[in-house]
């Protein structure tokens, strides 16, 4: 079938076509080559961005940042590429299934690598069919997605005044929702509880300073980064209640899940979490247990764009909102936005604010953020390419 007539038919009867059916009819578009670029960002980690090339000259983009082990991510990318080379870009489910069966697929690095390659496939599929990627996920319900500014990676010093100053910058830049994780100085090991009270007091003071800086009409989100025991967490929620939080995130670790459930039941504050939970299978128990009110799958860590769509569907069934987690490069932000825009139960998307001044220029066109919203592209695929000049000056091919 000619591409034009296929597209015409596909637009008229979208449910009649699965991606593998399209793959059989649209010839070409086989995966040929992968490029991986590392861009130094800050003490919290680098960005790893991908370009996946097809035999006929299309270029798809993905984000493989923040697995915690970039060297292992790069090794996994090279291993997983063998599952794609010479294969159709449309066979996304086949790739996902093969990646999950490949050696070492349980590591965080392998999941991030497979997810990033999957982002590339959806970018390529949109380009090959001449539609924005969000069309492949059911069409956008909104022309832009609301963002919150995570100032935790840029606030310096990490004092009430330091957090307040960065929050004011984010509000000036147009953001009306601000997140910080003011308890990062607390020990991650929950068995070491000596001298934590001054650190809790300092964190609460940082949260209060940001609330005062942004005023009562902007949203304040606090991430506890799992630094609390259940009893400490219940006490924390009571102390934070007067700050009128939009949400309180991950007070205790994801395991045992009963601690999150207990805190969620005990507080009037909305709770959020799930950034490290993988796949529909992981979120099924997380959502069913009532661990949080708002699910936070990350398109790099949960399995990819299609996994986000599926996780959002089970959350929708449970009456829950979805707010994709995502300190990410602009590539990851744009990719997440394409799916987020299609979700009936989407709430707000994360944006790491103020990490580097050249952030928006990584992509062409520059990252489309205006007034605290990420504007959805109407170009085919994800609608971005990488800025060659910026790659030449800042990136290392790995
Ligand atoms: Mg978090």
TrEMBL record:
Keywords: Lyase. One of its GO terms (molecular function) is galactonate dehydratase activity. InterPro entries: DgoD-like, Enolase-like_C_sf, Enolase-like_N, Enolase_C-like, Mandelate_racemase_C, Mandelate_racemase_N_dom. SMART domains: MR_MLE. This is Galactonate dehydratase. It is an enzyme of class 4 (lyase). Residues 160-270 form the Mandelate racemase/muconate lactonizing enzyme C-terminal domain. CDD domains: MR_like (cd03316). It comes from Sphingomonas aerophila. It comes from the Bacteria. Its EC number is 4.2.1.6. The keyword Lyase applies.
């Amino acid at each position: 079938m000619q591409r034009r007539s296929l597209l015409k038919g596909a637009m008229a009867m979208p449910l009649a076509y699965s991606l593998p059916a399209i793959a059989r009819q649209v010839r070409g578009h086989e995966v040929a080559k992968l490029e991986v670029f590392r861009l130094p960002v800050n003490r919290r980690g680098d960005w790893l961005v991908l370009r996946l090339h097809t035999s006929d000259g299309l270029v798809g983009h993905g984000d493989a940042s923040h697995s915690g082990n970039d060297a292992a991510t790069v090794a996994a990318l090279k291993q997983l590429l063998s599952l794609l080379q010479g294969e159709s870009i449309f066979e996304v489910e086949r790739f996902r299934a093969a990646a999950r069966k490949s050696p070492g697929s349980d590591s965080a690095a392998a999941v991030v690598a497979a997810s990033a390659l999957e982002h590339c496939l959806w970018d390529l599929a949109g380009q090959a069919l001449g539609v924005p990627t969000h069309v492949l996920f059911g069409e956008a319900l909104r022309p832009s997605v609301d963002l919150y500014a995570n100032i935790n990676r840029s606030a310096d010093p990490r004092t009430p005044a330091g957090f307040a100053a960065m929050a004011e910058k984010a509000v000036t830049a147009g953001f009306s929702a601000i997140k910080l994780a003011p308890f990062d100085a607390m020990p991650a090991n929950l068995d070491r509880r000596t001298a934590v009270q001054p650190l809790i007091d300092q964190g609460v003071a940082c949260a209060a300073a940001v609330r005062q800086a942004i005023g009562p009409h902007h949203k304040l989100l606090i991430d506890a980064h799992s630094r609390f025991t259940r009893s400490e967490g219940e006490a924390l929620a009571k102390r934070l209640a007067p700050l009128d939080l939009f949400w309180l995130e991950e007070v205790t670790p994801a395991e045992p899940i009963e601690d999150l459930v207990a805190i969620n039941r005990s507080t009037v504050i909305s709770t959020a979490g799930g950034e490290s939970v993988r796949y529909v299978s992981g979120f099924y128990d997380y959502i069913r247990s009532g661990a949080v009110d708002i699910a936070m799958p990350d398109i790099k860590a949960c399995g990819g764009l299609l996994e986000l769509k599926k996780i959002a569907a089970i959350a929708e069934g449970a009456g829950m909102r979805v707010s994709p987690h995502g300190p990410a490069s602009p590539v990851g932000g744009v990719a997440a936005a394409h799916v987020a825009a299609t979700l009936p139960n989407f709430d707000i998307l994360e944006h790491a604010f103020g990490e580097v001044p050249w952030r928006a220029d990584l992509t062409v066109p520059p990252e489309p953020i205006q007034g605290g919203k990420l504007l959805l592209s109407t170009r085919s695929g994800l609608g971005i390419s990488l800025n060659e000049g910026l790659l030449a000056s800042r990136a290392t091919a790995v």
